[in-house]
Amino acid sequence: MKNFKTRIDKLCLPRVALAGVAALLADQQQKLLAEVDKGRDLWHGSKPSMSTTGLACGNCHPDAAASNPETFPKYVSELDRVAPLRDMINWCIEHPQGGTQLDVNSDDMLALEAYAFYLNRGEAIQPGLAVPTGPYPVKSGVGFPKKPSGLGVDK
Fold it and tell me: Would you say residue 147 lies in a domain?
């Protein structure tokens, strides 16, 4: 009888473990969406030090469109080197936006990358090219679940 009970306990353990895994995955998804949410606000101008010109990332890349994060790292002609997305984000903050670059290891940079990558999930990875190859089709969608923040275009 003891051997039978041990086998039953082993069979029941995965059910309990699966319930724990589902809760863990839901918690991880919530944390990811919180980071994406923060990135969205930053993308649309919630941090004044990122701009002195009145521009935000969202002015040139609404909903992260045409930011093509899935193509990074790639050669970036503005930097004259192969660079990750975070370096291109900082170039845009410093040059068109006239703002102060972010620490590449900061929570704010992580949030900006999370937003750009999240909205471009499912895109085919293409190698980044140093020269324009023609128009890039911008696909619009609902993005991620979010109530308007009151920032930028949400006003």
Answer: no
pLDDT for 31-74, tens place per residue? 999 999 999 999 999 999 999 999 999 998 888 877 888 889 99
Number of domains composing the chain = 1
Tokens 């903050």, residue located: 93
Rounded-to-integer distance, Cα 100 and Cα 70, Å = 25
Phi/psi at 136 (5° precision) = -100, 120
CATH value at residue 42:
1.10.760.10
- Exposed, middle or buried, 40 (CB in 10 Å: 0-12/13-18/19+)? buried
- What's this model's pTM, rounded to 2 decimal places? 0.69
